[in-house]
Each structure stands twice: as C-alpha cells, then as structure tokens.
Design a protein that fits this description.
Blueprint: E1 2-10, E2 13-22, H1 26-34, E3 42-49, E4 53-58, E5 62-66, H2 70-83, H3 88-100, E6 113-116, E7 136-138, H4 141-150, H5 155-173, E8 178-182, E9 191-195, E10 199-204, E11 215-220, H6 225-234, E12 236-241
Parallel strand pairs: 4-12, 5-10, 6-11, 7-12
Antiparallel strand pairs: 1-2, 1-3, 8-9, 8-11, 9-10
Helix pairs in contact: 2-3, 4-5
Bound molecules: coenzyme A and adenosine monophosphate.
C-alpha cells in the first residue's frame, strides 16, 4: 500500500493536513488531497510505500454530550478520564495546560502532549512539537461517510470527525490509556475524551467560540513511552468499520 500525506501552509503557518492509505487510484487520491485546503501558498504531498498494514476491525464507539458551558464540560471530562484510569488531579492538570496554551513558547503545538498518567509530567521530547499520530485511514471512506450521514452528522463536522475518530482509534491501539482533545479552530468548540473503556465521547463546548487555542493530551505509562511513540508515528493502521 501507499501512504499519501498532504500538508499545506499559508505565510509559514500550517493550515491543513490530511492523509490516506491506498492500494490503487493514487492520482485520484492526490487530487482529492490537493483540493482539501481552501487557501494556501505552499503544499507538500508525500507518497511512501508501506510494507505492513495492521487492520483494526472497529473504530471506538461514539457518544455525544452537550453542556451549558465550558466549566461543566470540563467537569464531565474529568469524570470521563477517571473512568479511563486517569486520577482527577492529573486530568485537571491536563485541562489547565490546554486552556493556557500547550506550547511553552505560547499558543498551539504541532502535535500532542504525552503525559505520565501517574505523575502528570510531560514526556514528549519536544514541547513545541509534541508527537503526531500518523499513517492511518478508513478502509472504505465512502461507506463511513454514508453511515455518519445516516446517523444525522452535519457536513460541517464530517471530515474532521472522521479524522479525529481515526486518530483516537489508532491511539488506543498503540497503548494510549486516555486522551482529551479540543481543536485549535476558533469556530469548532466540540472536543472529546476517549479510551478503550468509554470509547470516543464528544463533549461540547470544550472552549468558547472564537478561542484559537487547542490541543491534545495523551495519557501514557512512562515505561511504555518509546513503544507508544514508535507505534503512533510509524505503524500503518486501516480501520475497517464504524
Ligand atoms: N500541525 C502543525 N504542523 C504540522 C502538522 C500539524 N498537524 N503536520 C505537519 N506539520 C508541519 C510541521 O512543521 C512539521 O515539522 P515538525 O515535524 O518539526 O513538526 C512539518 O510539517 C513536516 O511534518 P511531517 O510529520 O513530516 O509531515 P507528514 O508528511 O508526515 O504529514 C500530516 C503529516 C500532515 C499528514 C499530519 O500531521 C496530519 O495533519 N494528518 C491529518 C490527521 C488526520 O486527520 N488523519 C486521519 C486520516 S483518517
Ligand atoms: P485539530 O483538532 O486538528 O484542531 O488539532 C488540535 C491540536 O491537536 C493541534 O493544535 C495539535 O497540537 C494536535 N494535533 C494535530 N494533528 C495531530 C495529530 N495527527 N496527532 C496528534 N496531535 C495532533
């Protein structure tokens, strides 16, 4: 199979990223990825042969909750994380870091924080970059899109939801014990908490509209750090169905 990855920038700032794992139709996929960003001044498309692809039968099961304000959502997120085995003190620390802006130099990171589930210490080797979950895709994207439309998902949410669910599903496969995320897109206030026991729980609002700060925290066991990073960055994963 081929790993096809696109990243686009505008004035030096990352504005769009997407990827596919494909057996054929390379040209069609490249065209699709090329069309994804609305506006950019530079784009890189990488095409790489992958030898081994693992299949994950099902994505994490999905639930959605809406709350009246950010504080109530965050309280619920703490409760969800406790069901993933993350202590309250550690969950609150993660939320505070995301609220402040996870990049120590200010603003957003380029990947996720890896947090020691026992101590709350940040373990990612570079705190401006973080670690990215890459090399995953849906086996049949059209089918997943159809199913999500049938479940009533609005077009605005569809692509980013599919991407985020693929990331969260791969994370669990790689040994991430729990995850909390909200987007850095100022218009997108729905975030999620995920882990093996609760699945993928969408929570709204995780931040106020207009706020450009977001991020991801992955809770991990320190002893497993290297193995988890290697899996997140290197293993190719195809998800069969919703
Ligand atoms: N955010 C910010 N900057 C990013 C970035 C991101 N998500 N992805 C890449 N970049 C920029 C960074 O400057 C990066 O340098 P760094 O490694 O020092 O941070 C540089 O581009 C090169 O990144 P690299 O990791 O080599 O890119 P890649 O060719 O492997 O592509 C993407 C990675 C773009 C595909 C991935 O980051 C992404 O955004 N994937 C989409 C996620 C997704 O939703 N996938 C699900 C599909 S089902
Ligand atoms: P997004 O949901 O795309 O708005 O991303 C929110 C935050 O998650 C970004 O600011 C990054 O810090 C981080 N992030 C983006 N892409 C990835 C990825 N592929 N893996 C891990 N973290 C990511």
């Amino acid at each position: 199979m081929w790993s096809v990855r696109m990243r686009a920038q505008k004035m030096g700032v990352h504005v769009s990223g997407a990827e596919r794992l494909v057996e054929k139709d390379l040209e069609k996929v490249i065209r699709e990825l090329y069309r994804r960003p609305k506006d950019f001044d530079s784009m890189v498309i990488t095409i790489e042969k992958v030898d081994a692809v693992e299949v994950v039968k099902r994505a994490l099961p999905v639930q959605s909750y809406d709350f009246k304000d950010v504080d109530t959502s965050h309280q619920f997120a703490v409760e969800l994380l406790s069901r993933c085995g993350v202590r309250e003190e550690i969950a609150r620390r993660a939320i505070e870091i995301l609220k402040m802006g996870p990049n120590p130099k200010g603003g957003n990171m380029r990947g996720a924080i890896l947090m020691d589930v026992e101590t709350g210490e940040r373990l990612e080797p570079d705190q401006e970059r973080g670690i990215r979950t890459v090399r995953m895709d849906w086996k049949d994207r059209k089918q997943v899109e159809r199913e999500l439309r049938k479940r009533g998902m609005k077009p605005f949410y569809l692509k980013r939801f599919m991407d985020a669910l693929a990331i969260a599903t791969k994370n669990v496969y790689c040994g991430v014990l729990g995850e909390i995320c909200w987007s850095d897109d100022p218009d997108y206030t729905t975030g999620y908490v995920s882990c093996k026991s609760i699945g993928y729980v969408r929570v709204k609002p995780m931040k106020d509209k207009g706020n450009p700060i977001g991020g991801r925290v992955y809770f991990v066991r320190r002893e497993a750090l290297e193995e988890v990073i290697n899996c997140l960055e290197k293993k190719a994963i195809l998800i069969e169905e919703l």
